[in-house]
Amino acid sequence: MSYPEGSIIPRPEHPISRADIDVDVLKVLYRLHHKGHLAYLVGGGIRDLWLGKQPKDFDIATDAHPQEIRRIFRNSRIIGKRFRLVQVFFKGGKIVEVSTFRSRSEFDAEVDMLAPNNTFGSPVEDAQRRDLTINALFYNIADFSILDYVGGVKDLQDGIIRVVGPPEIRFQRDPVRMLRVLRHASRTGFQIDPTAWSAIQSYRHLIRLCSPARVRDELLKDFRSGYCRDFFQLMLASGLLAAIFPHIEETTDGAAFSGLQPRMQAVFGTIDLLTMGGLSLSEAFFWTAFLIPFLEKVTVLPFQQIEPETVAKYVDESLSPLEFARGRRDEVIMRLVTVSQLMHQLGAGRRVSARLKRRLCLPEAWLLYHILTGASQKFFEDIIAQQSVKPVLPEKPPTTKRRRGRRRTHRKKVSPI
Ligand code: ATP
Ligand code: MG
Asked: Where is the tRNA nucleotidyltransferase/poly(A) polymerase RNA and SrmB- binding domain (predicted)?
């Protein structure tokens, strides 16, 4: 059946069942409803349930104002300054968030500077302030119907990622929405609506206006999503990656830039396999994996011969737009240097030096070494089965014999990395 904008889809015509909704979320919805309020399940939770996926979180929207919500739930508190929402607490530290319908997004920064604090709105306005049509559906607990003010059901059925409203305006108001388009396209496998795609090409440079911390956090979500291969492919193809990291584009000529694709795809494909398998990896690990294909392209020396100073300089130049904390930057450099040294030593059939073995980052560097050298599927499946990375390093040099009779008389002072 086809559903135009403004449709109410009755329960028998949609796949969303209460059995798939968290019991505490249902309790909050029913309580609001019994107190005479509109109570809708909103956002990404509906999208995921419709697609038969397990939602990460459930969000609730209502016409009750924060103070009223707070009064209805004793175990709750109001958070946020400009955009207040209520957190309802349940056993085991579970939190269900309830927000009042809004007329605009908290991310529409420019408008907020001028507007008064009161941003409450109607359900229609709340749907219209959302990013994508598939993220703007409401599930009404009163009759279990779906409310679709933006044509999101049709887009779910047709497999389209479409921005709510004109993409150029929505991207100018909040450039992070461009990342969200690519995120949801990669997660769902849906096609990006052509007007959104061309607006990304036109407005991609605006991403530099967003707070570096926000962009960093957003990208980290994609590293960890299990779909980072497709996400970064879209980032590369749309030019958004180069917009965020101008140095990365500058240091690779056009041909090399497109030549990166197969390497990035292979590296990120393996990372997706590991994260889908539940392996937990550090933030520094992802940034290291991200930088390696670029480093391989730009340096004169092969990656395994690269100098620590060159690595540090490259990391500083390329990651500077995202203003990393010093500690995180050091972790990335240490991993890059360690992978390069592992490649050098293991690649030459040598034993891994004691200095390398002592490094805290060795397990992740060892994993990266295997990703880069294209280890077998079985190797990664074993890591997933163990849910940890334990380096197995050759104790004796497999090929060369150590010459006897040589004594070391002088120890060269080594740099810490
Ligand atoms: P995920 O599965 O990653 O949680 P999600 O769609 O639920 O996906 P959230 O970041 O949890 O993403 O956001 C919840 C909802 O808030 C979205 O579904 C969308 O409706 C709205 N939203 C989030 N970010 C924006 C934004 N930048 N502009 C407009 N609406 C947004
Ligand atoms: Mg969510």
From this structure: 189-249
